[in-house]
């Protein structure tokens, strides 16, 4: 059975980006009709993330992952749950405003940064570490070189020192 959550994660990411950009353009360039786009996009992004997170957990539990990949998936899961909470807070906050205040826009751009990191991490898990897909062995870089960016991120976020842990 193919993974469920990859089909679901694209919507919250795309709608989160749409919301932040629509609200920012509306505020900066004076297009108030975009405020409603930002409002609805944030609400639907939060709802979509709330559906994608349990699907991702289910996929993680049924995948046969290497230890290193499983550690990255756990980091991805924890940051994803944080983003679900942030998107829900953002949706509630955004829904309470006729037009977004500067403090909301700052919060929304921080959430967008988190979405960007989360998206990159998900891509690393799938395309570099082969999580959730049958390994094809068709990469253009040696395995150690391809995995270096995600290994560095994991070490920094988990407090591990260089050279410790698996893989290098």
Describe the structure in your own words.
The chain has 168 residues and is mainly alpha-helical. It is built from 5 helices and no strands. Helix 1 packs antiparallel against helix 4. The longest helix has 29 residues. The two termini are 32 Å apart. The model has no long low-confidence stretch (mean pLDDT 84).
Radius of gyration: 18 Å
* Regions with little confidence, pLDDT below 50 for 5+ residues: none
Q: Sheet bearing the most strands, described?
A: none
Mean pLDDT: 84
Order of helices and strands: HHHHH
DSSP summary: helix tally: 5
Bin the strand percentage. Answer: under 5%
Number of strands: 0
Structural class: mainly alpha
The share of residues in helices is over 70%
Write down the overall geometry: elongated
Distance between the termini: 32 Å
């Amino acid at each position: 059975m193919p993974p469920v959550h990859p089909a679901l994660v694209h919507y919250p990411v795309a709608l989160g980006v749409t919301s932040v950009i629509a609200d920012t353009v509306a505020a900066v360039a004076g297009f108030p009709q975009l405020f409603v786009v930002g409002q609805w996009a944030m609400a639907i992004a939060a709802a979509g993330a709330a559906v994608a997170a349990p699907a991702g957990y289910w996929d993680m539990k049924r995948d046969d992952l290497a230890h290193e990949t499983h550690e990255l998936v756990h980091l991805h899961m924890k940051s994803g749950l944080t983003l679900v909470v942030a998107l829900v807070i953002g949706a509630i906050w955004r829904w309470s405003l006729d037009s977004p205040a500067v403090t909301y826009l700052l919060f929304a751009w921080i959430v967008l940064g988190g979405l960007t990191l989360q998206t990159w991490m998900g891509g690393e898990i799938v395309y570099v570490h082969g999580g959730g897909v049958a390994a094809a062995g068709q990469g253009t870089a040696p395995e150690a070189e391809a995995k270096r960016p995600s290994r560095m991120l994991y070490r920094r976020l988990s407090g591990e020192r260089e050279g410790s842990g698996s893989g290098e």
